[in-house]
Amino acid sequence: MTCLSPSERRLQKELMSLIKDPPPGVSVDADQVEQNLFLWTIHMEGASGTLYEGERFQLQFKFSNKYPFDSPEVTFTGSNIPVHPHIYSNGHICLSILTDDWSPALSVQSVCLSIVSMLSSCKEKHRPPDNAFYVKTCNKNPKKTKWWYHDDSV
């Protein structure tokens, strides 16, 4: 029996919870996670009755050994990156809980629910206004981006 680090114990617990009781339209690639507990692929379906209904997306979660005190690096990957005002064409997501508002109380499940909710509340599909510039100049790791969060309703 190997001794798991606190990060590994937490990730194992979250993985079991996600496999047993996933949010609607969300599933984890458990075989891939078995290979590397610190790299997860999550499959997500657009919620019915939304602009993304019928679409399938892939999210990648990368965890550091400081998780859950350090937020995971979360990006959309694959051939279908959602066209959304807070999602860049390279898969980076502008969502405060992934950086400034991260808390160890959050989980993979709550991040997935937030992303589903963000997609579901979208009124029209378009990229962020600075998409071309951002994609050309950003760091590969979205957590190194200094995001400016602004409320869309203003």
Summarize the structure in words.
This protein has a 4-stranded antiparallel β-sheet. It has 4 helices and 4 strands; from the N terminus they run H-E-H-E-E-E-H-H. The model has no long low-confidence stretch (mean pLDDT 91). 23% of the residues are buried. Helix content is 27%, strand content 14%. The protein has a single domain, classed as Ubiquitin Conjugating Enzyme (Roll), CATH 3.10.110.10. By secondary structure, the chain is α+β, with helices and mostly antiparallel strands.
Task: Kindly list the characteristics that best describe this protein.
single chain, globular, alpha+beta, 154 residues, Ubiquitin Conjugating Enzyme, 4 helices, UBQ-conjugating_enzyme/RWD, 4-stranded antiparallel beta sheet, 27% helix
Task: Kindly summarize this structure in a few lines.
InterPro entries: Ub_conjugating_enzyme, UBC, UBQ-conjugating_enzyme/RWD. This protein has about 150 residues and is of the alpha+beta class. The chain is built from four helices and four strands.
Task: Write the SSE topology.
Blueprint: H1 6-20, E1 26-28, H2 30-35, E2 39-45, E3 56-62, E4 73-77, H3 108-120, H4 131-137
Antiparallel strand pairs: 1-2, 2-3, 3-4
Q: Hey, roughly how much beta strand do the residues contain? A: 5-15%
CATH topology: the name is Ubiquitin Conjugating Enzyme
Secondary-structure element string: HEHEEEHH
Q: Which stretches are low in confidence, meaning pLDDT under 50 for 5 or more residues running?
A: none
Q: What is the overall number of helices?
A: 4
What structural class results from the helix and strand content?
alpha+beta
What is the general shape? globular
Helix content: 25-40%
Calculate Rg over CA atoms: 16 Å
Structural domain count: 1
By CATH reckoning, the class would read Alpha Beta
Total beta strands: 4
What is the residue-mean pLDDT, rounded to a whole number?
Answer: 91
CATH architecture tag: Roll
CATH superfamily: Ubiquitin Conjugating Enzyme
Major beta sheet, specifics?
Answer: 4 strands, antiparallel
Q: How is the largest sheet built, in terms of strand order?
A: 1-2-3-4
Organism: Rhynchophorus ferrugineus
Domain UBC core: 6-154
InterPro entries: Ub_conjugating_enzyme (IPR050113), UBC (IPR000608), UBQ-conjugating_enzyme/RWD (IPR016135)
Keywords: Transferase, Ubl conjugation pathway
